[in-house]
Amino acid sequence: MTTTLRPPVGALLRGWRQRRRLSQLDLATDAGVSARHLSFLETGRARPSREMVLRLAEQLDVPLRERNDLLLAAGFAPAYGRRGLDAPDMAAVTRALHLVLAAYEPFPALVVDRSWELVTANAGLALLTDGVAPHLLEPPANVLRVSLHPEGLAPRIANLPQWRAHVLHRLGREAHLTGDPGLAALHRELTALPGGTDRSTPDGIAVPLRVRTGAGVLSFLSTVTTFGTAVDLTAAELSVEAFLPADAATAEAVRHVAAGASGEHSGSMRPVDGGGRP
Question: Mind listing the pLDDT tens digit for each residue in 193-211?
């Protein structure tokens, strides 16, 4: 039998503080404790209470999943549950996701989990996945891999170096802020893919996604929606990524394509994956 040794809570707290680039004095001041006491907690000379762990985690903006890890390392039970989207008490979350996705139609919008795996999407997503290799869309499909893979959306992205730089920067930042080894591994994988990078400042207000389609080159701006008050791991780690038209021509083209396809498909929503892959 293999036993996994959990790092002491003090070392974990120190790691999060350093990741946030805070001194002991900065964190102690923000949390309302003495720098001496914080030092004792980090070195193991003092044991934090459950309330202290949660207070420091809040100040350090530690993700809920890792807050549970801190509690376990300190000898306490986890504070945040994790339920699948098919659980009865997650029905409100599922309804909210459907409402948000439907509101964005006919423009593409999708729900992803913390690992950037696709959970569900509206009918508009087909505009972006057209021509993507089927194996990339098999569950659990990773939307960042789909976007940058040579067999994915990448060949159709007119500004691939610029978009790729944006995606890699965002993913790298998330991997650093969360300390998630899975995100770090995904960042290494996607960095090794071809496509180049262009880190120049975009002309507009944000980096657009410019996609070649049968209706011409369409330009989108992405937005992100999250459950800001979630206390369940599954809900907290879900986000809605929507692609809205960056210009009037794109808006008109997408609406035209959607109008032509409306008679061919019944329903506009892909089913929510019951597991939620938290």
Answer: 999 888 776 666 789 999 9
